Amino acid sequence: MTNFLLYGGAFDPPHIGHIKAITNGIQKANKILPYNEEIDEIWIIPDDQKFFNDNRELAPFVDRVGMLRLILEFHNIKNFRFRFESKNKTIPKGLFYILRRLIDDDSNILNNKYFFLMGEDQAESFKNWIAHEKYNELPITFIIVKRSYGISSTDIRKNLKYENSHPYGLINSVLSYIRRNNLYA
Q1: Helix (H, G, I), strand (E, B) or coil at 165
Q2: Residue 129 CA: distances (Å) to CA of 4, 94, 100, 119, 126
Q3: What's the pLDDT tens digit per position in 108-127?
Q4: How many helices (H) and strands (E) does the chain have?
Q5: CA-CA distance, 41 to 182, in Å (whole number)?
Q6: Binning pLDDT at 50, 70 and 90, where does residue 8 land?
Q7: What is the rounded (10 degree) CA torsion for 88, 94, 98, 104?
Q8: Distant-in-sequence, close-in-space partners of 131: CB < 8 Å, separation ≥ 6
Q9: Rounded distance, CA 116 to CA 147, Å?
Q10: Domains in the chain: ranges and CATH
């Protein structure tokens, strides 16, 4: 049996609040699991389409994954792997459908446990997510963690665009990546 923590989002850009969410999500999930079990693997699911209904353009997918790798490795997050949506255009838009496919593709689905990590800000807007009414079809336990710890990707993007300073919540290597690739300008 494997215990998975699933964390999906735009990560536009990824910041320390995302890392705190992961570490707190692991702690919360481990408290739910039986005494001798813990989270075995973290699935980071960067969404290429956005899982909620909004019209904002995302930074290029490859750049968001590159920044995620930098921050996860910097903070020594172990046992993570990226899970991506299929390039098959017949899969409907939205994180629910990505999760459904990933879980269905797991050959040991009946023995594994899945914990879906969500920030409380996303939990508050959950009714706006694409296919939000279908999440109860998934064999997942929701783990809700504190909202971004005072850090917002929106605020970081605004800071980068208008103030060009070092925004709170970004590590140096991610900021360098952003500047080198002219993101959020």
Answers
A1: coil
A2: 22, 8, 15, 13, 5
A3: 777 889 999 988 877 888 88
A4: 6, 5
A5: 33
A6: confident
A7: -100
A8: 92, 94, 96, 97
A9: 15
A10: 3-148 (3.40.50.620)
